[in-house]
Amino acid sequence: MLHLIDLNDWPLQDVTDILNLAKNIMQSPDDYMDVCRGKIMASLFYEPSTRTQMSFQAAMLRLGGQVIGFDNPVNSSISKGENLKDTIKIVSGYTDILVVRNPVEGSAKAASVFSNCPVINAGDGGHLHPTQTLLDLFTLLEEKGTLNGLKIGFCGDLKNGRTVHSLIKAMTRYQGNQFYLISTEALAIPYYIKEIIDNANCTYTEVRSLEEVIPELDILYMTRIQKERFSSEQEYNEQKKVYILDKCKMNKAKLGLKVLHPLPRVDEIAIEVDDDPRAVYFKQAVYGMYVRMALVMSMIRQEKIPDVSIDGEYRHVPCTNPYCITQQERYLPGLFEKNGDMLTCKYCDQRRLI
Amino acid sequence: MLHLIDLNDWPLQDVTDILNLAKNIMQSPDDYMDVCRGKIMASLFYEPSTRTQMSFQAAMLRLGGQVIGFDNPVNSSISKGENLKDTIKIVSGYTDILVVRNPVEGSAKAASVFSNCPVINAGDGGHLHPTQTLLDLFTLLEEKGTLNGLKIGFCGDLKNGRTVHSLIKAMTRYQGNQFYLISTEALAIPYYIKEIIDNANCTYTEVRSLEEVIPELDILYMTRIQKERFSSEQEYNEQKKVYILDKCKMNKAKLGLKVLHPLPRVDEIAIEVDDDPRAVYFKQAVYGMYVRMALVMSMIRQEKIPDVSIDGEYRHVPCTNPYCITQQERYLPGLFEKNGDMLTCKYCDQRRLI
Amino acid sequence: MLHLIDLNDWPLQDVTDILNLAKNIMQSPDDYMDVCRGKIMASLFYEPSTRTQMSFQAAMLRLGGQVIGFDNPVNSSISKGENLKDTIKIVSGYTDILVVRNPVEGSAKAASVFSNCPVINAGDGGHLHPTQTLLDLFTLLEEKGTLNGLKIGFCGDLKNGRTVHSLIKAMTRYQGNQFYLISTEALAIPYYIKEIIDNANCTYTEVRSLEEVIPELDILYMTRIQKERFSSEQEYNEQKKVYILDKCKMNKAKLGLKVLHPLPRVDEIAIEVDDDPRAVYFKQAVYGMYVRMALVMSMIRQEKIPDVSIDGEYRHVPCTNPYCITQQERYLPGLFEKNGDMLTCKYCDQRRLI
């Protein structure tokens, strides 16, 4: 539990511990208002994400800690002419924990290689965003009382949504969950996610319409449908209504349904749904603060981290993903996990043959 | 006193309480250095206003509280593709008090409709800026010892200056104040402000020259004269000297005169005046911090606020002010106060016939 | 020790006290975690310098203090239409210490004229950056155990590097130091620095190659070589290899050598050198935080500062340096030190005949 780069790297028990701690903090926040006194978090946002940043900041401040950092690559002299390594080496010398958001895949892993303190991945491009998944799990647990045996619908752009992929992966680690995958054909879930579901002995159903499946669901996880993902504006206009959640569709759902959304929404949930007690997406955002409090508190108490010893075997092997951080920061050693004749890049998870 | 949107909504006793508390804090700041411990202010600045923001931040930090927020609409992902409601719902879930600055009229009121914690209006376009008025009142009280029976000159652009309008309105709630309105004809005070003065049984005098009236004044409230308000550059150059305060004009004023300015100044007060002990505009800015401490401390101690119950009668009536927040955020319910056959918009104070 | 504008203004004993205090803080940081409780630093960065700003912020927060400020001249309303004087008057009324970075020479001195609290110069254009020099001294003392009798190489752009000039000046105040000045002819050290070395009875050697002199050195202070300083791209490409520090050159150096760099680096130190224990530039950055803690703590405890009384003799004499702050902010009084028939500008150190 040195760093949080990929939630799947963590044993399930560690995930459970964070969720339990978040619950305790939420119930008795005053008991935790000094646990990070004298500690500093660096919030290094190489791309703006105000909501995520404010959630982390509020979390650290509510623990009695302090925050420094930057939020704007354009104005920051950091991002001009300085490599990631130097920034991480310096800033991790000033602070006790790093929260890193960077649009390049694998950048959080790269930061963890050089950091003198724990690193939390707050989003590395289209790759991973593990604290979102943690807060989604907490929301399910809090609202449904269990992470097992749930009928969970995912609606929207299931092809490109890392949030969806990550939550499905996490939920397959629990028992008896059933997934309803609601999208257009063009935005359907990737094959490898279906494989993961199959391998976990969970089940899934792919459907094209929200209306037909909503009566079944315990959970409906809505996501943004981006116009530019459709083949034409006409297609977008025809299809989007099928995927917009409104009062009329809510009327067909169970009383116990809970509607989640990672936010921000555009128009995939009508404003009229906000007043429905089954809409929990604003609560979900607040839960996120408590989950991040639990995470920061647990990670910051660890001993100072020695530099990762980088074994030599694959250090000169290049990653084949053109968006991998190793393509931009050329001094980074190759790091791969070998599996048969496949190498998986430890930065960005791209796979290649040896 | 749930929110501070418009100072005139507050009973005079509440205003007095804030001014008294500000005085106590200024005299014994150490007594208050922990009263907001464990509390967080969100400083949501949809347009930059560094001075106001720093004043609020310093105020909260001096109370032992903490601050998160944003200051830059361009870099903030918040302002892209997310409506005001969602931002307010989420951020007010992280924090204990919101300070909102937004260039759209009525936006602070709109924020208060959805916030889970108290909202302070730190300026909503040309509409209101109540904490400026509070600090102006505090300055008058501190420097003159009373808010009654004062001869107050306002000089500069009296047509467009919300600061001036707001302070006049506030001063008409006290007894025996006389107003001297010093401006060009084109920049004269609006008619409705003169009505307010008349209705309050106060008196006013409109003059075109600062020099002729300065010997009378107890207070001179200077404001910026913006070049672009004049009909031509020539007219500007001819007129501006009449409205610039310099040593020569100061020599004609009473020893007890106090010169105020909301700052920033451009060149309407000559630098040479700064060393005159009657110039209190820098002190006025510092008073502002103490007033904001009093305000934040008083408001934050309130109970959590339930969602405003929005009555249905006028919720579908549109506001006729094209700059009203309800024109931009179309989901906002119409909120009006009925007075005879007039409806006054509760967001932006625009009036319309039923 | 009211302000820190130019390190050479300070008695050597004050410098020694700061270095000793920094050492104590580094050894027992917990003893200092509350010494600035209730105090606020304003971090006024008129040009972005994220690393310096984060170092100051971390320093203040680790002392239990708080920070407000701005980091971005473009977005800040402060820098639009408000003179330096007004900003300093107002902000120093909110806070207990100012850290000012401004690209205009002499601006830190100008700030100190109007500030109600101590001012630290965090860089005023090409003029001075005294906290960098303090942290360089601390690094030498920490890594070599002494500031006397050292053989110090400076490599890179010695003509334009204020960091180099400043550290040489500071090191000539100690005994028996020898300077090795490694640069191209076009980027050679200015004559007046050589005069300072001579006057202090220290010695220097100018060389064109790093390789020939590296075996002699106790300290190697590397600096950036900016492409645009060379007469042509061809010349740059030919010369730069001579000044790049790599493993091969490190192999010729003493075991006791210490390599410093003010950071950020571009490519004048090869990444492969980072793992050499003699490379201390990352430690140097962390030392900087402790030095700034010592500085802030020492300066903030002073009494409130009265306005500097500006004597009249030279107040109408203009400075001849076109980049001096007095050229931009025309209300600033001329301040000069007279020496024979020479006047030295107290803002920017430009000299002129009477």
Topology:
The structure is a homotrimer of 354-residue chains.
Chain A: H1 12-27, E1 40-45, H2 50-62, E2 66-70, H3 84-94, E3 97-102, H4 107-114, E4 119-124, H5 130-144, E5 151-155, H6 162-171, E6 178-182, H7 191-199, E7 203-207, H8 210-213, E8 219-222, H9 233-243, H10 247-250, E9 258-260, H11 281-300, H12 325-328, E10 336-339, E11 342-345, E12 351-353
Parallel strand pairs in A: 1-2, 1-3, 3-4, 5-6, 5-8, 6-7, 8-9
Antiparallel strand pairs in A: 10-11, 11-12
Helix pairs in contact in A: 1-5, 1-11, 2-11, 3-4, 5-6, 5-11
Give start-end ranges of low-pLDDT stretches of chain A. none
Assess the beta-strand content of chain A as a share of residues. Answer: 15-25%
**Percentage of helical residues of chain A?**
25-40%
Give a short account of the largest sheet of chain A.
5 strands, parallel
Strand order of the largest sheet of chain A: 7-6-5-8-9
Structure commentary:
- Three copies of one chain form a homotrimer.
- Chain A contains twelve helices and twelve strands.
- In chain A, strands 7-6-5-8-9 form a five-stranded parallel β-sheet.
- The longest helix of chain A is centred in the C-terminal third of the chain and has 20 residues.
- Chain A is globular, with a radius of gyration of 21 Å.
- At the A-B interface, helix 2 and helix 11 of A face strand 2 and helix 3 of B.
